[in-house]
Every structure is written in C-alpha cells, then in structure tokens.
Amino acid sequence: MLIAGNWKMYKGPAAAAEFCLALRDEDLRGVDVVVCPPYVSLAVAVQLLAGTEIAVAAQNVHWAQEGPFTGEISPSMLRELGVYGAIVGHSERRQHFGETDATVAERTRAALDAGLFVIACVGETEEERERGATQDVLRRQVSVLEADENLVVAYEPVWAIGTGKTATPGIAQEAHAFIKSLLDVLVLYGGSVKPDNAAELLALPDVDGALVGGASLELDSFTAICRAATRS
Length: 232
Ligand code: PGA
Known about the structure:
- This protein is α/β, with parallel strands linked by helices.
- The protein has one domain (2-230): Aldolase class I (TIM Barrel), CATH 3.20.20.
- The protein contains ten helices and eight strands.
- The chain has helices at residues 13-23, 42-49, 75-81, 91-96, 101-113, 126-130, 134-143, 169-182, 195-202, 219-230; strands at 2-6, 32-36, 55-58, 85-88, 117-122, 151-155, 186-190, 209-212.
- Strands 1-2-3-4-5-6-7-8 form an eight-stranded parallel β-barrel, surrounded by six helices.
- Helix 9 links the parallel strand 7 and strand 8.
- Helix 1 (13-23) packs parallel to helix 2, helix 7 runs parallel beside helix 8 and helix 9 packs parallel to helix 10.
- Bound molecules: 2-phosphoglycolic acid.
C-alpha cells in the first residue's frame, strides 16, 4: 500500500518543516508513505525526512533536462535535490494549466528515464461520467503511458477532488480494474479520501493505495489514513 500526500499550493518551507518534523516521529511501518510539497518546500522536506522511510516527490516535472522553459523544473534538478519522484498530469494541471495527454506522456517518460518514480493521474470529469464516457476518457489518458516498475497511476475522478464527494466503492473498483486491464500498474485512488472513508476504499481488491489532497495537510488525518492502509 502506498499513501501519497499531495499538498498542492499549501505549506511553504516553514510549515513543511514543522509537518515533516512531526511526521518522522510517527510509526508508519507497513505502508509506503510519500509527501508531495510545493517546489519551494522540497529541499527542507528531503533534508528532514532523510534517513526515514518517507519519500518526497514533486507535484510536476518538465520533460527537458534544461532549457528556455520559464517556470518549469527538470527531472535532473529534482534528482539533484534528492527528490524521489513526481506527480504528473494532475487534473488541476490539466484543467488550469493546459496539460494534455501528450505533455503528460512526455513528462512521465523523461521523469522515468531520469530515475524518478512517477504518479500519473487520470480521471473523468462529472460531465464525462454523466454522458457515459468514463471508459473512453480513461482509455485515452492511459494509452499514452507505458508500464514501468517506477510508474503508478492515480485514478482521481475530477468530480471527487476537493469536493467531499468520494467515488463509491463500486465506482472506484470498476475504474481501477479497467485501468489495470489496460496497463500493468498499481493504481491509487484519489478524490476526497479522508480517515473515515479510507479503510473502505483501501480494502477494494484493485485499490493499491491513495493520493490524498486536503486530508494530507493535517498530521492527524494523514497518519490516520496511513494507518488504515496498514490494516487493508
Ligand atoms: P482531495 O485531493 O483529497 O483534496 O480531494 C486529491 C488530489 O487532488 O490529489
């Protein structure tokens, strides 16, 4: 089981340091834990979690190693910092920053080639689900990815992200099984995972962990989800 906390644009270096200092005192044996701070907080997180089993990943990564790409960060820069992996293709990047399946493919390939672990996000919008297009969307988003031992997919239905609306176990299981029929990967569930619904979701046969947004920002809720994973 893998539990990844996506901090989004929360926790600058001071708040990240405070969280990491507290997190490293927690007993999280039996679960793989990853935190994904914003870029400016990666260094302090790597430093404070060194020597623990907790890994640090970025929330995005560019495909080139360097170049005229204002505002972007390369795989080798993350490696230099001691970062372990990156999220790629989060729906917020697809919705607000023009991320496409083509750029997700390029970012993923470059990150894997550089030796980073990648959490590639897929998921349908509410409108796509309502018109019965969920499988077509997932097939299209997954088709640009290639199986790799350092790649996991996160199924994050867009309508469940930050909304408090979690996918029902039936919806999550069906989507995870479908993704696995397309690609031989582990699949995390993401979208309003909280301590009170984590155990039920993590117990599903094709759910291999969770990508947690809001509930990863508080130590108590994040560690409660990590502990639910050890019992699944
Ligand atoms: P949420 O976010 O848990 O706040 O819904 C999940 C995500 O965006 O990865």
